[in-house]
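Model it.
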Amino acid sequence: MLLCCSVTSVSAQVSIGIGLPNVSIGINLPLFPELVPVPGYPVYYAPRVAANYFFYDGMYWVYQDDEWYASYWYNGPWWFVEPEVLPLFILRIPVRYYRHPPVYFRGWRSNAPPRWGEHWGREWEQHRRGWDRWKRGSAPPRAPLPVYQRRYSRDRYPRVEQQQTLRRQHYRYQPRDKEVRRHFQQRGEQRAPAPAQRRRQEEPRMRGPGQQEIQRPTEPRQQRGPAFRERREQPGGVQREQQEPRQQGREQRVRDRERSQEPRPQGREQRLKERERSQEPDRGQGERQRKEEDRGRERNN
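Modeled.
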């Protein structure tokens, strides 16, 4: 495998595209590189690539011209990574696995990590205090290699939009390192969304006015909310509201009963009057009979 590295510095390019996944760092790999595990570390390195080229936690890492870069695909695009947010196991890679070490690495122990605190200064060392202290037997397992990328050589190398789709289809590994998840995973996924994702993101915006029209009928309910809360805050307010209809119902039933009972006395009086009227002829006949008997007695005397 071949690696073509530019001789000129890339600092000017980084200053223009810092943080973007389209930084050109002068690396052009024609094929998927051979990656070999670093013994005792969850990291791979590329022994046949004339660059400081590594693979860790599902991503590719390159140290070049005193800068770190990361990518999801073996030949980029790359984005710049600040030293303050580099994963710890990237910082801990021993010097001997840097295939193209800078000049200031000379004299440093080959089986120890670079002296980043000495190189980047006291402020960085205070910020990343304890980065070089860890239990050798507690290293996490290595992430699986994205071997599906072997099918995509220089002539077939996919565009950024296609890279994300292919990665989701063929590489289901999720980073375990919190720094990788926090700083790089979302950035890599969101910087270049696929066309279908862009359409899905634009659809809600286009439906915005329609959604507002659908939500308009719900506004009166929101307006009634404060009044309802005021009634709830008044002592016994809800109970009065619940009892008032019941009391009105009771009063109505009492009135109905009274109205239904009113004709009854009238009916009794009417019947008594009718009885008296029906008895009046009998009484008249009795009086006439008594008068006739009195008259007969007078005649006999």
